[in-house]
Amino acid sequence: MNTIIHTHLAPTLDSERLHLRHFTELDAEDVFAYASDEQTVQYLTWPAHQNVQMSKTIITSLLSNESTYAIVLKGTEKVIGCIDLRIVSETEASFGYVLNRSYWNNGYMSEALQTTLTYMFSELGIQTVTSCHETENPASGAVMKKCGMQWIHLAKQETLFGKTTDNDHYCITRDAWVVRTNP
Ligand SMILES: CC(C)(COP(=O)(O)OP(=O)(O)OC[C@H]1O[C@@H](n2cnc3c(N)ncnc32)[C@H](O)[C@@H]1OP(=O)(O)O)[C@@H](O)C(=O)NCCC(=O)NCCS
Q1: 78 C-alpha vs ligand 1 centroid, how far in Å?
Q2: What is the pLDDT of residue 7?
Q3: Residue among 103, 105, 111 whose CB has most ligand 1 atoms within 8 A, to mutate
Q4: How does the average pLDDT of the chain come out, rounded?
Q5: Fewer CB near the terminus (10 Å): N or C of the chain?
Q6: CATH code, 75
Q7: Which residue blocks in the chain are alpha helix, DSSP H?
C-alpha cells in the first residue's frame, strides 16, 4: 500500500545530460527565449511572452513552485525548457512540457520525462500517469511513446483550458513502468 503524501517534491532531479531544478528570476532571459517563440507555444495553453519582464513575472507567479522544473543542460547554466509535474491525487499524476526550439529532436524531452516518471513511480507512490497532446502536435506523442506510455484514445473537439482541439490521450501505469525498466 502506498502512503506517501506529496508535500515536498525533490528540489532537483538529474539524468545523464540534464539537471532539473526549480526556477528563479535569473532564468527570465532563458524562459523568454523559448516562451516568446510562436511556433513553440502554438500547441500550449498560454500565449507567447511579449518581453523578458513578462517572463520574470510569470516565473514569480506561476513557475516558482516545487512541482515545476527548469530543464538545464548539464555543462551549461542554460535553461532550455520546463517540465511540470501535476500530482492530481495520491496515486495519479500528469505533466506538461516545453523545450526551446533550438534543442528539439535531440532526445532531451524524452530524457526529462523518463527522469520524472521514474521519480513519480519509484519515490512518490504514483500508480498512474496520464497526459495528452493536440493531434496536430505528433512530436509530443512521440516523446510519450518513447517513454513507454500507451495511446488510450482520441478525444475529438475536446475543450481543455479554454481551447477546443482534437487530443490524443496517453497513459502509463506503475506496473507497466516496472516491467519496462526491469524486464
Ligand atoms: C514536444 C517537445 C517537448 C519534444 O521535445 P524534444 O526534446 O524535441 O523531444 P525528443 O527529441 O525527446 O523526441 C521527439 C520525437 O518526436 C519526433 N518528431 C519530431 N517532429 C515530429 C513530427 N512532426 N511528427 C512526428 N514525430 C516527430 C522525433 O523524431 C522524436 O522521435 P524519435 O526520437 O523517435 O525520432 C518539443 O517539440 C516542444 O517543446 N514543442 C513545443 C511545446 C509542446 O508541444 N509541448 C507539449 C504540449 S502537449
Answers
A1: 20
A2: 57
A3: 105
A4: 95
A5: N
A6: 3.40.630.30
A7: 28-35, 38-41, 52-58, 108-123, 138-146, 174-181
